Amino acid sequence: MKQGLLIEDLVVEVAGKRVVDGLNLHLPKGEVHAIMGPNGTGKSSLSKALAGSGDYKILSGRVFLDGVDIVGKAPEEISKEGLFLAFQYPVEIPGVSIANFIRACLNARLPEGEEINAPAFYKELYAKMQELGMDKSFTSRSLNVGFSGGEKKRCDILQMLMLKPKIAILDETDSGLDIDALRIVSDGVNAARSSELGVLLITHYQRLLDHIVPDKVHVMYGGKIVETGGAELALELEKSGYEKFKG
Description:
By secondary structure, the protein is α/β, with parallel strands linked by helices. Helix content is about 35%, strand content about 30%. This is Fe-S cluster assembly ATPase SufC.
């Protein structure tokens, strides 16, 4: 079985509508892939289905994460297997600080009764925050409550850096970012690139891919991957759009 994320003939529906229609994709660990496509073609639906959202029903197909079939598993089980999803619109969790949220996620991976070492946790957390240009005071703020768009996306990347997943799906992580924030978030993703991490970027725009150069670019149209190429494919899409894929 291939390592990383392997999707075979995936079909997904939501509210009775088929939104992913026979999609195939292999994202090896150690690579960064981008998915591009027009609005409504199923990109965000794909990410939510992979993460186990109950609103998205997988009708057929298989999804493997390092050889483990994750179809039908609960979101928390999928997370423990090593899948991380940064939502296009991060949710707010009043009353739960960033630090406590990340600690709870890390502790959930340990055997019952065990906890991570607090001093070591905060030392690493503060180091990652410094890389992302985040003030230490953020650790006591409720998760995403009152955050700007850029602050929410930096918080997403902070979680990814701390949780160290096998596969990270970043759904339009460039949305709402100004130029400086885009650079900082991109630097965080690039710093995380390693042979143990595969990254799937879902984006509309070349500007993100100027900072995070992908190994492959996939075009998603009508719920499936219709073309795959190198980083130059994104430049072609920027110029010509998706007209040639219609019909």
